[in-house]
Design goal:
alpha/beta
Amino acid sequence: MASESKFHVLAVDDSLIDRKLIERLLKTSSYQVTAVDSGSKALEFLGLSDNEDEQQRNSNPATVEVNLIITDYCMPGMTGYDLLRKIKGSSSFRDIPVVIVSSDNIPSRINRCLEDGAEDFFLKPVQLSDVSKLRPHLMKGRSKPNINRRKGVEQQIHSPDRTKARYNELEPYLSTN
Protein backbone atom coordinates (compact mmCIF):
# COMPACT_ATOMS: atom_id res chain seq x y z
CA MET A 1 0.00 0.00 0.00
CA ALA A 2 2.92 2.35 0.63
CA SER A 3 3.89 2.32 -3.05
CA GLU A 4 0.43 3.56 -4.06
CA SER A 5 1.04 6.90 -2.37
CA LYS A 6 3.99 7.42 -4.70
CA PHE A 7 1.77 7.59 -7.78
CA HIS A 8 1.84 11.20 -8.91
CA VAL A 9 -1.07 12.59 -10.91
CA LEU A 10 -1.01 15.95 -12.68
CA ALA A 11 -4.61 17.29 -12.67
CA VAL A 12 -5.45 20.03 -15.18
CA ASP A 13 -8.78 21.91 -15.09
CA ASP A 14 -9.63 25.60 -15.44
CA SER A 15 -12.64 25.21 -13.12
CA LEU A 16 -11.60 25.61 -9.49
CA ILE A 17 -14.52 23.47 -8.27
CA ASP A 18 -13.78 20.60 -10.68
CA ARG A 19 -10.05 20.84 -10.01
CA LYS A 20 -10.59 20.67 -6.23
CA LEU A 21 -13.01 17.74 -6.64
CA ILE A 22 -10.51 15.76 -8.72
CA GLU A 23 -7.72 16.65 -6.31
CA ARG A 24 -9.75 15.51 -3.29
CA LEU A 25 -10.82 12.24 -4.94
CA LEU A 26 -7.23 11.46 -5.93
CA LYS A 27 -5.84 12.32 -2.49
CA THR A 28 -8.57 10.21 -0.86
CA SER A 29 -7.24 7.34 -2.98
CA SER A 30 -3.69 8.01 -1.71
CA TYR A 31 -2.27 9.65 -4.81
CA GLN A 32 0.16 12.55 -4.81
CA VAL A 33 -1.52 15.34 -6.77
CA THR A 34 -0.30 18.47 -8.50
CA ALA A 35 -3.22 20.59 -9.73
CA VAL A 36 -2.89 23.37 -12.31
CA ASP A 37 -5.50 25.51 -14.06
CA SER A 38 -4.33 25.37 -17.68
CA GLY A 39 -2.63 23.25 -20.31
CA SER A 40 0.18 25.80 -20.52
CA LYS A 41 0.86 25.49 -16.79
CA ALA A 42 0.85 21.70 -17.12
CA LEU A 43 3.48 21.91 -19.85
CA GLU A 44 5.46 24.38 -17.75
CA PHE A 45 5.33 21.97 -14.78
CA LEU A 46 6.67 19.21 -17.03
CA GLY A 47 9.36 21.52 -18.38
CA LEU A 48 7.88 21.58 -21.89
CA SER A 49 6.81 25.00 -23.16
CA ASP A 50 3.74 25.19 -25.41
CA ASN A 51 5.57 27.74 -27.60
CA GLU A 52 8.70 25.72 -28.20
CA ASP A 53 9.65 22.70 -30.21
CA GLU A 54 10.82 19.57 -28.42
CA GLN A 55 14.43 20.37 -29.34
CA GLN A 56 14.16 23.66 -27.44
CA ARG A 57 12.82 21.95 -24.34
CA ASN A 58 14.00 23.37 -21.04
CA SER A 59 17.35 21.92 -20.01
CA ASN A 60 15.90 21.00 -16.61
CA PRO A 61 13.36 18.22 -17.19
CA ALA A 62 10.63 17.67 -14.65
CA THR A 63 12.33 16.51 -11.48
CA VAL A 64 9.10 15.08 -10.12
CA GLU A 65 7.93 11.92 -11.80
CA VAL A 66 4.39 12.17 -13.15
CA ASN A 67 2.61 8.85 -13.58
CA LEU A 68 -0.62 10.14 -15.14
CA ILE A 69 -2.20 13.35 -16.42
CA ILE A 70 -5.93 13.91 -16.03
CA THR A 71 -7.17 16.95 -17.94
CA ASP A 72 -10.41 18.73 -18.71
CA TYR A 73 -11.23 18.83 -22.42
CA CYS A 74 -12.73 22.34 -22.57
CA MET A 75 -10.37 25.02 -21.30
CA PRO A 76 -9.59 28.50 -22.61
CA GLY A 77 -6.37 28.81 -24.56
CA MET A 78 -4.97 25.30 -24.78
CA THR A 79 -7.70 22.64 -24.65
CA GLY A 80 -7.23 19.26 -23.03
CA TYR A 81 -7.09 17.80 -26.53
CA ASP A 82 -4.25 20.19 -27.43
CA LEU A 83 -2.43 19.14 -24.25
CA LEU A 84 -2.93 15.48 -25.14
CA ARG A 85 -1.42 16.09 -28.59
CA LYS A 86 1.57 17.93 -27.07
CA ILE A 87 2.21 15.14 -24.55
CA LYS A 88 1.84 12.33 -27.10
CA GLY A 89 4.01 14.28 -29.56
CA SER A 90 6.85 14.57 -27.07
CA SER A 91 9.49 11.84 -27.05
CA SER A 92 10.14 12.62 -23.38
CA PHE A 93 6.55 12.45 -22.14
CA ARG A 94 4.55 10.36 -24.63
CA ASP A 95 4.51 7.36 -22.29
CA ILE A 96 2.65 9.25 -19.57
CA PRO A 97 -0.98 8.08 -19.68
CA VAL A 98 -3.48 10.89 -20.27
CA VAL A 99 -7.14 10.74 -19.22
CA ILE A 100 -9.58 13.33 -20.57
CA VAL A 101 -12.62 14.53 -18.60
CA SER A 102 -15.53 16.55 -19.94
CA SER A 103 -19.09 17.49 -19.09
CA ASP A 104 -19.99 17.15 -22.78
CA ASN A 105 -20.80 13.65 -24.01
CA ILE A 106 -19.98 14.13 -27.68
CA PRO A 107 -19.12 10.72 -29.22
CA SER A 108 -16.92 12.16 -31.99
CA ARG A 109 -14.89 14.11 -29.41
CA ILE A 110 -14.48 11.06 -27.18
CA ASN A 111 -13.48 8.88 -30.11
CA ARG A 112 -10.95 11.45 -31.36
CA CYS A 113 -9.31 11.68 -27.94
CA LEU A 114 -9.11 7.90 -27.58
CA GLU A 115 -7.76 7.47 -31.11
CA ASP A 116 -5.09 10.13 -30.50
CA GLY A 117 -3.72 8.46 -27.40
CA ALA A 118 -5.96 9.18 -24.41
CA GLU A 119 -6.12 6.18 -22.12
CA ASP A 120 -9.67 6.91 -21.01
CA PHE A 121 -12.42 9.51 -21.13
CA PHE A 122 -14.56 10.31 -18.06
CA LEU A 123 -17.72 12.35 -17.97
CA LYS A 124 -17.97 15.03 -15.29
CA PRO A 125 -18.48 15.10 -12.47
CA VAL A 126 -15.58 12.72 -11.81
CA GLN A 127 -16.52 10.15 -9.20
CA LEU A 128 -14.59 7.86 -6.89
CA SER A 129 -15.51 4.93 -9.14
CA ASP A 130 -13.74 6.74 -12.02
CA VAL A 131 -10.62 7.19 -9.89
CA SER A 132 -10.53 3.44 -9.25
CA LYS A 133 -10.29 2.93 -13.03
CA LEU A 134 -7.01 4.86 -13.09
CA ARG A 135 -4.90 2.14 -11.42
CA PRO A 136 -4.14 0.11 -14.62
CA HIS A 137 -3.15 3.31 -16.42
CA LEU A 138 -0.94 4.36 -13.51
CA MET A 139 0.79 0.97 -13.55
CA LYS A 140 1.42 1.41 -17.26
CA GLY A 141 2.84 4.88 -16.67
CA ARG A 142 5.07 3.61 -13.90
CA SER A 143 6.50 0.81 -16.03
CA LYS A 144 7.94 3.35 -18.48
CA PRO A 145 10.26 6.19 -17.50
CA ASN A 146 8.97 9.68 -18.29
CA ILE A 147 12.15 10.65 -20.08
CA ASN A 148 12.53 8.01 -22.74
CA ARG A 149 14.91 8.71 -25.61
CA ARG A 150 15.27 5.15 -26.88
CA LYS A 151 14.86 4.42 -30.58
CA GLY A 152 11.55 2.87 -31.56
CA VAL A 153 9.49 4.65 -28.90
CA GLU A 154 6.93 5.30 -31.63
CA GLN A 155 5.33 1.94 -30.87
CA GLN A 156 2.69 3.04 -28.42
CA ILE A 157 1.54 0.95 -25.49
CA HIS A 158 -2.16 1.58 -25.97
CA SER A 159 -4.19 -1.00 -27.83
CA PRO A 160 -6.65 0.05 -30.55
CA ASP A 161 -8.81 -2.95 -29.61
CA ARG A 162 -9.04 -1.78 -25.99
CA THR A 163 -9.79 1.77 -27.11
CA LYS A 164 -12.58 0.63 -29.43
CA ALA A 165 -14.00 -1.66 -26.74
CA ARG A 166 -14.05 1.24 -24.26
CA TYR A 167 -15.71 3.51 -26.80
CA ASN A 168 -18.35 0.84 -27.55
CA GLU A 169 -18.93 0.50 -23.81
CA LEU A 170 -19.54 4.25 -23.49
CA GLU A 171 -21.52 4.70 -26.69
CA PRO A 172 -25.01 3.89 -25.23
CA TYR A 173 -24.50 6.66 -22.66
CA LEU A 174 -23.33 9.12 -25.25
CA SER A 175 -26.06 8.99 -27.85
CA THR A 176 -27.48 12.39 -28.54
CA ASN A 177 -30.94 11.09 -29.46
